[in-house]
Specification:
Helices cover 34% and strands 11% of the residues. With 375 residues, the protein is an alpha/beta fold. A seven-stranded mixed β-sheet has the order 1-3-2-4-5-6-9, sandwiched between helices. Helix 6 packs across helix 7. The longest helix has 24 residues. It comes from Caenorhabditis remanei (Caenorhabditis vulgaris).
Length: 375
């Protein structure tokens, strides 16, 4: 998507649905809690649609704040169709947030990598949305190259290209994670690591250091469920790459669409994405019992308890407690005699021979003198 496409979209769609800037309420909060340079990094005023989100909720909602992380050569305003379709389905526009982590909408620029700076930017924005909304958890959707960046932001730890510590995992603050056309295993365009986007350190080349880092750990993206939305017609990331499904990741539940190209998979599947986010919403979950079902079960249990109590009231006498069987007294066994073992007798040492007396020595010498010498 280039800048002409974005400009046409802004001309057709109402800006309240585009969200091409930060709401004044959110802006005032950021200025109170962040330094001017940090606010500027979030807002990205130099871009056409550098960021959006925030505002005071006008009615109660069961939806959680959603943070959208764009892919290569896009910016926050690229989500105008997602914002429009979410709002049309009843999702509060005040609970949709996005910032731009790259240089925005450009003609195909492949000299971009998943640097530590981009990861830190997204992680700080997630933390800012959590503080601003006061929500216990948020939902995160990562698109294309934005998916591995968002996953690393959630995972934390050290950057692979810099000796920078991102901090501990923030998995506990993420309810649902969705990867849309995500390059989680690499891209079919990176068969040979010639371009910056395909470098073996922070690029989308198969088994790059960055991809090995985020795929080494498993099931850290969310606390409820993670999804993987991919298309067989995606020829940018590809449905298959690096000898496996390009968008898959451990713990991600795959939702496959047929024939959609890369941009269609990203921006024309808002209904599917919102359905995934609302799967665990009270009363709509397919994997968990709804509140109504719980009430029915509780009501039935109360009736059963009441009837049982009435049955007990009808009885004039309390039921006799079952007698415990008598145990026969155990015979006391006679104490065993303790036989002390005797220590083995010591063997007598052989008697020592007495030394020869002086008389015997003199007699032996005389015998030797009488013997004739042999010639």
């Amino acid at each position: 998507m280039n800048w002409i496409t974005v400009a046409l979209a802004l001309a057709v769609v109402d800006l309240s649905f585009c969200g091409n800037n930060i709401h004044p309420h959110f802006m005032a909060w950021m200025k109170q809690n962040y330094k001017p340079e940090e606010v500027a990094a979030f807002v990205r005023d130099e871009l056409t649609t550098g960021s959006f989100g925030g505002g005071v909720l006008t009615q109660e909602t069961t939806d959680r704040p959603v943070i959208l992380v764009h892919g290569l050569n896009n910016e926050a305003g690229s989500f105008w169709k997602i914002a429009r379709d979410f709002a049309a389905a009843g999702h509060p526009i005040q609970y949709l947030f996005a910032t731009t982590w790259g240089r925005g909408v450009e003609q195909t620029n492949l000299n971009v990598a998943m640097s530590c700076g981009h990861v830190r930017h997204i992680r700080r924005f997630i933390e800012a949305v959590l503080k601003y909304t006061g929500a216990p958890q948020v939902d995160i959707i990562g698109y294309s190259m934005g998916s591995p960046i968002a996953r690393k932001a959630i995972m934390g730890g050290k950057c692979v290209d810099e000796n920078v510590e991102l901090g501990q995992s923030i998995q506990s603050r993420v309810h649902t994670y969705i990867s849309v056309a995500g390059a989680n295993q690499g891209s079919q365009l990176c068969m040979f690591p010639f371009l910056e986007i395909c470098n073996m350190n922070t690029g989308l080349a198969c088994n790059s250091k960055f991809l090995n880092d985020i795929n080494w750990f498993k099931n850290y993206e969310s606390t409820y469920k993670s999804f993987n939305l991919a298309s067989t017609g995606d020829f940018v990331v590809g449905y298959m790459a690096c000898g496996k499904k390009a968008s898959e990741f451990a713990g991600g539940h795959e939702y496959k669409v047929e024939g959609m190209n890369h941009e269609q998979t990203e921006f024309d599947t808002a209904a599917i994405q919102l359905k995934m986010l609302r799967e665990s919403t009270s009363g709509q979950s397919k994997s968990r019992p709804s509140v109504k079902e719980d009430k029915k079960k509780n009501a039935f249990a109360d009736v059963k308890k009441y009837l049982n109590s009435k049955r007990r009231d009808v009885r004039h006498t309390e039921p006799k407690k079952p007698k415990s069987p008598k145990r026969s007294p155990q015979k006391k066994s006679a104490p065993k005699k303790v036989i002390q073992k005797r220590a083995p007798a010591k063997k007598a040492s052989p008697p020592k021979r007495a030394a020869p007396s002086k008389k015997n020595q003199q007699r032996d010498t005389k015998k030797d003198q009488k013997k004739p010498a042999k010639h």
